[in-house]
Amino acid sequence: MSKINEFLDEMKEVVNEEAAYPTDMKEAIVGYVERFGMTPQILLDRKKYIDILMKQGMELEEANE
Question: Per residue, what are the HEC states of the chain?
């Protein structure tokens, strides 16, 4: 099992079973963040996320939005 899949399983079982992320963006996951009074959320690398969108055919301006 890949480290990302292990991380996602841990997020679902231990930290936040409702943690959502775009399933085609696993490569952009860098960890999770916690905010006071809120459930932890999955953290994505913005540059990696934009790179993935551009590989899928988006222009840079559109991907940034």
Answer: CCHHHHHHHHHHHHHCCCCCCCHHHHHHEEEEECCCCCCCEEEECHHHHHHHHHHCCCCHHHHHC
Domain ranges of the chain: 3-64
pLDDT, tens only, 7-46: 777 776 666 666 666 677 888 888 888 888 887 778 889 9
Tens-place pLDDT, residues 40-57: 778 889 999 999 999 999
Q: Are 34 and 24 in contact (CB under 8 A)?
A: no
pTM of the model: 0.65
